[in-house]
Amino acid sequence: MSGSTLGLRGGTAPPSSRAAGAAVDPQIDRIVRTPEFQQLVAERTRFGLILTILMLVVYFGFIGLIAFDKSLMAVKVGGGTASLGLFMGVFVILFAFALTGIYVARANTRFDALSDALKRSVGQ
């Protein structure tokens, strides 16, 4: 992307954050202003934040239980040697995999459709 200023996530930085007088590729500027691009960025950002918040709640909930309720985590499950803490730890790991699968499914359907609509609208 010659002449563009990259933001933190690899996308173009908003016009207000560009250095004064920096050369901007007019095609990139045109793409950034399209409603399809803005919708794609908004939906992807919102979805990513929701999944991030869910993961943080589950992870820090687990860590909080470890820190503040060790007796609950030590409860033996099913009469064996496995504790509730072990199953909760496995749940945290499986939850992360599930969120990854959910994101991939959304990216392969909704986000790809929005990307295709964006490509059509800019004529590529």
TrEMBL record:
Listed GO cellular component terms? plasma membrane
Report which superkingdom the organism of origin falls in.
Bacteria
User: Which regions span the lipid bilayer?
Assistant: 47-68, 80-105
Q: Which UniProt keywords apply?
A: Membrane, Transmembrane, Transmembrane helix
Annotated region Disordered: the residues are: 1-22
Q: Does the keyword Transport apply?
A: no
Q: What is this protein called in UniProt?
A: Uncharacterized membrane protein, DUF485 family
